[in-house]
Design goal:
About 40% of the residues lie in helices and about 5% in strands. It contains two helices and two strands. It is elongated and about 45 Å long. The relative contact order is 0.13. Bound molecules: zinc ion (2 copies). It holds the Pfam family zf-C2H2.
Length: about 60
Amino acid sequence: MKDLTKTFACEVCGKVFKHPDSLRQHHKAHTGETKCPVCYMVMSRKYELRVHLRKRHNIIQ
Ligand SMILES: [Zn+2]
Ligand SMILES: [Zn+2]
């Protein structure tokens, strides 16, 4: 059985992380910071969003 006391759960979607930093990073997905303004796909990092915009939509930011 997993020890859930050592994990950090997102209070918005319930996703569980092992590190508080990962949870903080993940929270940006809910604030819209990493959401693609074109297709509304949500990335876990701002860097991924920049790559996504460039590759998918040819947008350089
Ligand atoms: Zn979440
Ligand atoms: Zn997109």
